[in-house]
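Hey, I'm writing a tutorial for new members on how sequence and structure tokens pair up, and I'd like a real worked example in the thread rather than a made-up one. If someone can provide the structure for the chain below, I'll link this post from the tutorial.
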Amino acid sequence: MEIGGFQKFSVIDYPKKISCIVFLKGCNFRCGYCYNKQLVLPEEIEKQPTIPEKEIFEFLDKRKKMIDGVVVTGGEPTIHNQELVDFIKKIKEKDYLVKLDTNGSNPELIKNLINKKLIDYVAMDIKQTFEKYSCFTKVPVENIQESIEIIKSSNLSREFRITTHPELTKEEFDVLLNYVDGEKIFVQDFVNKNTLKELNNKTIYSLLDAENKEYILR
């Protein structure tokens, strides 16, 4: 497991908490609108320096009582399986909260982390309608569906996230809302910078209603 980035301070990535963010290298999705290609594409990952785990834990030792938690993101953290579990265990041993950002591709690992009480908050991205997930990944869509149900049925603090990228229509957006109906849903517009594909700026974000109770615009 390789760490490709480390942000030492954030007040927005873990709701109502002060956190630091660990970015893991590698991803099993290829979303054209992704702006972290340095953590996704093998040829870009090679150019990105790897941060030693020791550096992360030395920082956490120095910042006790100054930050509340650690956000583990990527790339996609759950592709690292047991290495991720061991890494989060070390964080929890230092009495920090842990938030996991995931694409939902590894439901068994998510379930394992929840059952072992190794994560305190989970944020899952919903990319597209289930029929179109094959445009982004070879991961079976059943994995995505299972992860949604695991997270919804857990007692964890949680959120689902939708990015309004240029290939997402309003009709498809409404379908995504139905997948996680009744859950906390954050909606953000895509950032047209450093993306995997060249895309235009036209999205449905400006059509969305800031007063709508089904989702929260970011």
